[in-house]
Write a structure and sequence with these properties.
With about 170 residues, this protein is mainly alpha-helical. It has helices at about 1-10, 15-20, 25-30, 35-60, 65-75, 80-90, 95-120, 130-150, 155-165.
C-alpha cells in the first residue's frame, strides 16, 4: 500500500490513481481530497482489524486463551498500523476525532470486552478494563518491531505471562 510505504506526505494522489488503474479525476470524484482518501483507507483498515480481533477473541474458549491468541496474531502482523496511526496526525482535528472514535470501537472495545469477560468468569482480578485494554494494546503494538529486531520468538508468550500475572485470580489449592 502506497500510504504504508511512503507515508502521508510522500504519497501523491497521482501515484494512488496510477496504482488503482484510474485517473486522478476519477479518484477525486469518489473521494474529493487526499484527506478523504486517507480517512477511507484508515476506516477500511480499522474495520478489517476490528473484525479480526473480534473473531480471534470470540473463537477462544476463555478470555485468557483469546488474549493469548490475539498476542500471537499481533506478533505475526507487519507494523503497518503504525503508519496509519501516524498518518491520522496530519488530518484536521474533526477527522482525528472521528478516527479516534472508530479506533475505540474497533480495537479498544473488543479488548475491554475480553477483559470484562475474564473478570466475570473469575479468570482475572477486577481491574479497570479500559486501562488494562490500553496497557495490553501498548504492549502488543511493540511485538512486531521487537521480533524484527531479533528478540526471541517466545516474546509473545512472555508478554502474556507478564500481563496475566497481574490480572489472574490467585489459584487456591484444591
Amino acid at each position: 500500500m502506497l500510504l504504508e510505504r511512503w507515508g502521508y506526505a510522500g504519497m501523491a494522489v497521482e501515484d494512488v490513481a496510477r496504482a488503482a488503474g484510474v485517473t486522478k479525476k476519477t479518484l477525486y470524484h469518489h473521494f474529493g481530497s487526499k484527506n478523504a482518501l486517507v480517512i477511507a483507507l484508515i476506516h477500511l483498515r480499522l474495520d478489517e482489524h476490528g473484525a479480526a480481533v473480534r473473531g480471534i477473541l470470540a473463537s477462544a474458549p476463555s478470555a485468557r486463551e483469546g488474549l493469548e491468541a490475539l498476542t500471537l496474531w499481533f506478533a505475526a502482523r507487519p507494523p503497518a498500523h503504525d503508519v496509519l496511526r501516524d498518518t491520522a496526525r496530519f488530518l484536521p482535528g474533526e477527522d482525528q476525532v472521528v478516527l479516534n472514535q472508530a479506533f475505540l470501537r474497533h480495537v479498544i472495545a473488543p479488548l475491554e470486552e475480553a477483559l470484562r469477560r475474564g473478570v466475570e468468569e473469575g479468570e482475572f482480578e477486577p481491574h479497570d478494563t479500559t486501562f488494562a485494554a490500553w496497557m495490553l494494546l501498548g504492549m502488543l503494538s511493540t511485538l512486531p518491531a521487537l521480533l524484527v529486531l531479533g528478540h526471541l520468538p517466545s516474546l509473545p508468550g512472555s508478554l502474556m505471562t507478564l500481563l496475566m500475572r497481574g490480572l489472574e485470580q490467585p489459584k487456591t489449592p484444591p
